[in-house]
UniProtKB/TrEMBL annotation:
Belongs to the bacterial solute-binding protein 8 family. It comes from Gordonia phosphorivorans. It comes from the Bacteria. The keyword Transport applies. This is ABC transporter substrate-binding protein. It is found in: Cell envelope. The keyword Transport applies. Residues 88-345 form the Fe/B12 periplasmic-binding domain. Keywords: Signal, Transport. Transmembrane segments: none annotated.
Amino acid sequence: MLANSPLRGLGRARSRGISALVALSTVATLGVTACGDADTTLRTPDGEVISTVTSRIARVNIVNADRDYAQTCLAPTATDAGRTDVARVVVTDPSLLDAFCALGIGSKVRAVTADAGSIPAYLGPALGAVPTLGDKPTAEQVREAAPQLVLATPSTAAELSALRQTGALGSARVATIEPGKDWRAQFTAVAAALNRSAAATERLAEFDAEVKRIGTVMDAAHNQVSLVRFTPDAELLEGTANFGASILAQIGVQRPAAQRGADPVVVTEANFTDADADLIYISAEGEQGMSRATSVLDSDRWLEMGAPSWQRVLWINDDVWFRSSGLAAAWLVLNDAKSSLNSSSAGE
């Protein structure tokens, strides 16, 4: 296995929760002083650390509840032969940051022209700490970032214009990435702008090889998985066009007949049981989505379906599965499937 293989880090990565809403990775501490040294970690009598990570909501287990997002990003990659490396980059669209994470070069991002809190949490603390300049950066902020390259998307033309209007971009090169619906195409486009096309090809090949292996080892073709998403407005049977579903499809996982269309379907009294399958992955968007989810999960009608009665229902991270895309996020979804396709919420 290559030294910079994503299996080195992501295979061991664990999730800190199902969404930013439920900040699930809190470890309880107890102040203890001994021999002048402070040990604030709560431990058992034999010295083992006691973790209070929330691993269960409404009697349903959370997949990879203790995932450490500091492990999301992969090992650094090299530039293409004969090409010059880029040391300092300003990004105008947070959706482009996944590629930096997957290429292991997040440290090159010196600023993002976006609002504070807009950097996806799954990218980890290093990228989360990158300065966010809002949509109207000052000349001083741009000079401090001193970009050699600015990466933008058509949807962030205003932010790019604001950068130019500061007059502080100097000789920085500008590359506009067409996002599209194909996360692989976006990844390779960002990699090309960063002179890392060969590394991108290698990283995608590593991912595809692991997907194929997992699909075979876990007999994915004989697993039927339902994706149920609770939003503030509805309970949805997700289709095939969302990011998480596309990774499941690549693994070879089957979907219930009612969920084989591209678009999500709103759950009604008439189609309620279309949510059932061998395994149900559930997620919630925001506090209202969570409230709707817990109400449904406690209902008799839900509990009488096959998967709930077999305790084959699991929480997944809504932000990663449905509101992100990219190779780094794809590894997280793959590792969720790897650790849960044959799991349940029993025995907790």
